[in-house]
Amino acid sequence: MPFRLLLAFLLLPTLLPALELHVAPTGNDSAPGTREAPLATLTVARDKIRQHRKDTPLTKPITVWLHHGTYETSTTLTLEAQDSGTAEFPITYRAVENASPIFIGAPKVDFKTFTPHQGEILKADVSALGLKDITIRQLLHNGQRQTLARYPNRDAADPLYRGWAFIPELPDPLPENHQWKLETYLAPADIRQWAHPEDVEIDIYAQYGWWNWVMSVKSLDSKTRKLTLAKPCGYDLHPHNRYYFQNALEELDAPGEWFLDKRTQTLYYWPEKPLGHGDEIRIPKLTHFVKIASGTQHITLRGLHLTGSNGTAIVVENAQNITIAGNNIHHSGNFTGGGISLHGGKNNLATGNHLSHLGASGISLGGGDRITLSPANNIADNNHIHHIGIFNKNAPGISLYGVGNKVTHNLIHHTPRMAVQFSGNNLTIDYNHLHHTVQETQDGGAVYTGGRDWISSRGTSLRYNLIHDTIGVGQGKDGLHWPHFTWGIYMDDNAAGLDIIGNIVARSARASLHLHNGRDHLIENNLFVDGGERQIEFNGWNKDHRFFDNHYKTMLAGWDSIKDRPEWKSMRNIELDPRNALREDGTIMSGNIFRRNIIAWNEPTLRYLDLRHCTPKHNTVESNLVWNSGHTILTGVNKTGPDIGPDILNTQQLLTDTPPGKTPKGWGWNHKPLPELQITATDGIITVPAATGPDPKNAKSVIHLPTQPFKPGTSYRARLKVRSTEPTTTIGFHYGSYASPGGYWSTGEQKFTATPEWQDIEISGNLPAENTPAYKSWMKTFWLRLDIHAEKGQIQMKDITLKQAAPASNWEAWQSEGWDKNSHVADPRLVSKDSDDFRLNPDSPAPKLINFEPVPIEKIGLYPSEFRAN
């Protein structure tokens, strides 16, 4: 049965003839609950159903009809096992056709109690609202959130990227006992004076700026400029972290700001316009509108309009066959409050809901057993989710966990971080439209998962999603910058075993796809368009990578938990024990298949596929169609052709002119770990001592050969003989350039193992061309650099030459390394990728060249349904 028809079938029982109760804002809880004499509250309707079921067996469906109007509610509707329906006779709470029953969990501030305070600021006594023991961060004026008094003031014209203060450079030296998570220093202009600093919160994007932390302030010393928090933040407080202070009466200095004095229960508010009798000022107080407890079954909530809760609007815990359909949930939730939570249980469905302006996530769903791979079949389908994470910037549009759960046909946009964040197994993330995501954080993705336990998120389907405009924002010396460091699809930290098929990914800040040591993924028939810094990124670990060391025990525990389970045997490459993850070439990333994809972009300076610690022996890239609008395909694999011209070092003459035991002219130290070390030349042999020193910035011996003029885009090949006084010594060569002021650039290190026997080695490299991102105007000279990865001994070199070489084709060099066999460089003939029409023209070569199948764009995203919210 097609998926959409299956959902309709699941909802059909609510259309059967039913016993009925009616609820209306004008109702009376003492009434019988008929259409003519409705009840006033859902809790009384629930209790009447309970009583009915005690007296009469359930023989018909039961429907509670909610009539149009506003319901002031201060009580959570709690449904328990005793409130369950059955598969044949479900129980439904739903809106009357074409009605909008609006439930408000925010008590109203009496308009008459407002009196002048100071200037345009009003004040009101709200002690009667019972807010004393509740964390309050929301004030609604005519249904819209207002700004909790803050410094700096919110910039209404650009609230995401302006209106921030920044942690300055810290004192140097810092006190020895400086506590990075607990204290920092402010710029002089940002010192504030508060009567009650203990009430003040700092909202800060600490350390990396991955997301924000809202922390209580303990004190601010105006003389030392030292800020101390009441308890440690989750990340260190670093220079350039952006922040603002909130919740102080002294900061109430702009229209739209408010402050609640918990000591006196006085609300202070500066309205943007003078208040009139039609204005409503409300303070969200109710935690949940509906809570469906463990063991409850066959309940439907449909067509409700919920606004003004302080927590998650609808919570479903370990229930079964619960349907949340066509509800409109908005302007609700504090830092941990979202729209809908479906956790545990099975066969629960959230469909057709409209979720917006929520404090945290839109929908959260999980359930299922990961060891036995028993599915929960909890589903989020056909929901419209946007402008969420108002307080919690780590909140995704949909949070997906467990086994066998599904996220399909949703439209998710304008999120501070991920659209869909997931972890588990055999999950389904198909046919979603995701755009303008990761707007306020960095190092994220529109779709994101991790796999530190070796078994996540194997068996998951990521198919036919349209993903575009993944933004990202960084913070540094010059303030905020965007787009920055984020991806469309991000398989982080060893995530494994997904089918990534038929997706369209366009305009991601860094790249369309990132496998961070990803494993065993099948990536085929996707269209990747206009990555911001490169198109695809495979970034593996090696044996020395700290992530591999940090997560090794977790990997073992994950694999050991399922290695003997028959349910897991069909998972792709699951037989590989993480104890055997390290390959003979020193890499770990393996089992990925990247084929039959179209990769298209316009910018000639951007690389196609950026590889680190990833080899074609253990990963497959083949049969793709690659197109950079006719420009050269840059791959990062640089090879050189035949030598051109003479030896530009002229080392033999240089050694002849060098007295025995002295340093040849132009040879020097990059890192000199011990002061007594010396580069010497004797009898045509140059000797460099190996050592390590106490300075971590100069821990090993690093030298450079004589400096040469920098010719952009030129290729070089060095030849020399090398030996070591130790049995084995690892050495590495780079081509590099340095200027101060300016910066440092180098090629990737080419490593060799030196032994006591002379061996011939070659080091090829290419200097950046002027039209590439790596090239900088300060590059005037370059040199060949030698790193000795050893604590003792000596490296000896002779017969050294450096010659210009003919450049080789970047694409041919790439293919000669074993990548992109049977791939083609050709225009895919998209209808208009600049206008987001990603269909193939009839004359596209992609179907013929790589057997590319058109993506069913018309099926992606929302679809018409009677269960959709208005």
From TrEMBL:
Question: Per the record, a Pfam family?
Answer: GH141_M
Q: Where is the Right handed beta helix domain?
A: 294-451
What residue range is the signal peptide? Answer: 1-23
* Keyword Signal appears in the UniProt entry: yes
Give start and end of each GH141-like insertion domain.
241-271
Q: Which domain of life is it from?
A: Bacteria
User: What keywords is this UniProt entry annotated with?
Assistant: Signal
InterPro entries listed in its UniProt record: Beta_helix, GH141_ins, PbH1, Pectin_lyas_fold, Pectin_lyase_fold/virulence
Protein name stated in the entry: Right-handed parallel beta-helix repeat-containing protein
Organism expressing this protein natively: Phragmitibacter flavus
Q: Mind giving the lineage of the organism this protein is from?
A: Bacteria, Pseudomonadati, Verrucomicrobiota, Verrucomicrobiia, Verrucomicrobiales
